[in-house]
Amino acid sequence: IDRIKKMIGAKSYRAEEPLFGELNGIKIKGRPDLILDDVVVDVKTTMDATPKSFGRDISNFKYHLQAAWYLHLTGGKRFLFIAVEKTNPYDYAIYELDEQSIEVGKKLMEKACELYGQCNLYKSFPGYTKDVQTLTLPKWDLTETL
User: Fold this and answer.
1) pTM for the complete prediction?
2) How far apart are CA 86 and CA 58, in angstroms?
Protein backbone atom coordinates (compact mmCIF):
# COMPACT_ATOMS: atom_id res chain seq x y z
CA ILE A 1 0.00 0.00 0.00
CA ASP A 2 2.77 2.43 0.92
CA ARG A 3 4.52 1.97 -2.43
CA ILE A 4 1.34 2.70 -4.38
CA LYS A 5 0.44 5.63 -2.13
CA LYS A 6 3.85 7.12 -2.80
CA MET A 7 3.68 6.37 -6.53
CA ILE A 8 0.43 8.32 -7.01
CA GLY A 9 1.05 10.85 -4.25
CA ALA A 10 -1.96 9.83 -2.16
CA LYS A 11 -2.35 11.18 1.34
CA SER A 12 -5.01 8.77 2.65
CA TYR A 13 -6.40 5.34 1.95
CA ARG A 14 -9.37 3.12 2.72
CA ALA A 15 -9.22 -0.66 2.32
CA GLU A 16 -12.10 -3.06 1.60
CA GLU A 17 -14.74 -0.62 2.76
CA PRO A 18 -18.33 -1.55 1.80
CA LEU A 19 -19.95 1.17 -0.31
CA PHE A 20 -23.57 1.71 -1.28
CA GLY A 21 -25.06 3.86 -4.00
CA GLU A 22 -27.67 4.13 -6.71
CA LEU A 23 -27.73 4.08 -10.48
CA ASN A 24 -30.91 5.01 -12.35
CA GLY A 25 -33.07 4.11 -9.36
CA ILE A 26 -31.31 0.78 -8.71
CA LYS A 27 -29.47 0.31 -5.42
CA ILE A 28 -25.91 -0.89 -5.96
CA LYS A 29 -23.05 -1.84 -3.69
CA GLY A 30 -19.43 -2.86 -3.82
CA ARG A 31 -16.25 -3.27 -1.81
CA PRO A 32 -13.16 -2.00 -3.61
CA ASP A 33 -9.84 -3.43 -2.50
CA LEU A 34 -8.29 -0.02 -1.97
CA ILE A 35 -9.16 3.67 -2.37
CA LEU A 36 -6.26 6.13 -2.36
CA ASP A 37 -7.70 9.64 -2.32
CA ASP A 38 -9.63 9.62 -5.64
CA VAL A 39 -7.90 6.53 -7.11
CA VAL A 40 -9.58 3.13 -6.86
CA VAL A 41 -7.22 0.13 -6.86
CA ASP A 42 -8.19 -3.49 -7.46
CA VAL A 43 -5.86 -6.45 -7.06
CA LYS A 44 -6.37 -9.32 -9.50
CA THR A 45 -4.54 -12.62 -9.66
CA THR A 46 -3.65 -13.92 -13.09
CA MET A 47 -1.54 -16.58 -14.75
CA ASP A 48 0.17 -13.98 -16.92
CA ALA A 49 0.44 -10.28 -16.06
CA THR A 50 1.68 -9.17 -19.49
CA PRO A 51 -0.41 -6.43 -21.12
CA LYS A 52 -1.71 -8.75 -23.86
CA SER A 53 -2.73 -11.57 -21.51
CA PHE A 54 -4.16 -9.41 -18.73
CA GLY A 55 -5.97 -7.34 -21.37
CA ARG A 56 -7.74 -10.57 -22.39
CA ASP A 57 -8.59 -11.22 -18.73
CA ILE A 58 -10.15 -7.76 -18.51
CA SER A 59 -12.32 -8.48 -21.53
CA ASN A 60 -13.21 -12.08 -20.59
CA PHE A 61 -14.11 -11.32 -16.98
CA LYS A 62 -15.64 -7.89 -17.62
CA TYR A 63 -13.22 -6.12 -15.30
CA HIS A 64 -13.96 -2.89 -17.19
CA LEU A 65 -17.55 -3.13 -15.91
CA GLN A 66 -16.17 -3.49 -12.38
CA ALA A 67 -13.93 -0.46 -12.91
CA ALA A 68 -16.90 1.67 -14.03
CA TRP A 69 -19.00 0.33 -11.13
CA TYR A 70 -16.41 1.22 -8.50
CA LEU A 71 -15.70 4.62 -10.04
CA HIS A 72 -19.42 5.36 -9.89
CA LEU A 73 -19.69 4.22 -6.26
CA THR A 74 -16.63 6.12 -5.07
CA GLY A 75 -16.70 9.20 -7.30
CA GLY A 76 -13.10 8.28 -8.08
CA LYS A 77 -11.17 9.81 -10.95
CA ARG A 78 -8.87 6.87 -11.78
CA PHE A 79 -9.00 3.08 -11.54
CA LEU A 80 -5.87 0.94 -11.33
CA PHE A 81 -5.51 -2.82 -11.60
CA ILE A 82 -2.62 -4.58 -9.91
CA ALA A 83 -2.26 -7.85 -11.83
CA VAL A 84 -0.38 -10.36 -9.66
CA GLU A 85 0.83 -13.62 -11.15
CA LYS A 86 -0.25 -16.79 -9.36
CA THR A 87 3.10 -18.56 -9.62
CA ASN A 88 6.59 -17.90 -8.29
CA PRO A 89 8.12 -15.28 -8.45
CA TYR A 90 4.62 -13.68 -8.19
CA ASP A 91 5.56 -10.78 -10.42
CA TYR A 92 3.02 -8.02 -10.93
CA ALA A 93 2.13 -5.15 -13.22
CA ILE A 94 -0.05 -2.07 -12.71
CA TYR A 95 -2.56 -1.07 -15.38
CA GLU A 96 -5.03 1.72 -15.99
CA LEU A 97 -7.81 1.39 -18.55
CA ASP A 98 -8.20 4.06 -21.20
CA GLU A 99 -11.29 6.27 -21.26
CA GLN A 100 -12.93 4.31 -24.08
CA SER A 101 -12.73 1.04 -22.09
CA ILE A 102 -14.25 2.72 -19.03
CA GLU A 103 -17.09 4.03 -21.21
CA VAL A 104 -17.79 0.50 -22.48
CA GLY A 105 -17.84 -0.61 -18.82
CA LYS A 106 -20.32 2.17 -17.99
CA LYS A 107 -22.67 1.03 -20.77
CA LEU A 108 -22.50 -2.57 -19.51
CA MET A 109 -23.19 -1.33 -15.97
CA GLU A 110 -26.23 0.66 -17.10
CA LYS A 111 -27.58 -2.30 -19.10
CA ALA A 112 -27.09 -4.64 -16.13
CA CYS A 113 -28.95 -2.28 -13.80
CA GLU A 114 -31.74 -1.83 -16.34
CA LEU A 115 -32.15 -5.60 -16.71
CA TYR A 116 -32.08 -6.08 -12.95
CA GLY A 117 -34.77 -3.42 -12.53
CA GLN A 118 -36.99 -5.09 -15.15
CA CYS A 119 -36.49 -8.51 -13.56
CA ASN A 120 -37.51 -7.13 -10.17
CA LEU A 121 -40.50 -5.32 -11.62
CA TYR A 122 -41.86 -8.39 -13.41
CA LYS A 123 -40.55 -10.92 -10.84
CA SER A 124 -38.96 -12.88 -13.66
CA PHE A 125 -35.25 -13.59 -13.84
CA PRO A 126 -33.55 -15.19 -16.86
CA GLY A 127 -31.99 -18.58 -16.29
CA TYR A 128 -31.22 -21.86 -17.97
CA THR A 129 -33.73 -23.83 -19.99
CA LYS A 130 -35.42 -26.60 -18.00
CA ASP A 131 -35.68 -28.83 -21.09
CA VAL A 132 -33.37 -31.83 -21.47
CA GLN A 133 -30.33 -30.90 -23.55
CA THR A 134 -27.85 -33.22 -25.25
CA LEU A 135 -24.15 -32.60 -24.66
CA THR A 136 -21.18 -33.93 -26.60
CA LEU A 137 -17.68 -34.27 -25.24
CA PRO A 138 -15.08 -31.90 -26.68
CA LYS A 139 -13.31 -33.28 -29.79
CA TRP A 140 -10.09 -34.03 -27.89
CA ASP A 141 -12.01 -36.30 -25.49
CA LEU A 142 -13.89 -38.04 -28.28
CA THR A 143 -10.65 -39.17 -29.89
CA GLU A 144 -9.32 -40.84 -26.73
CA THR A 145 -9.64 -44.61 -26.48
CA LEU A 146 -10.04 -46.55 -23.28
Assistant:
1) 0.82
2) 16
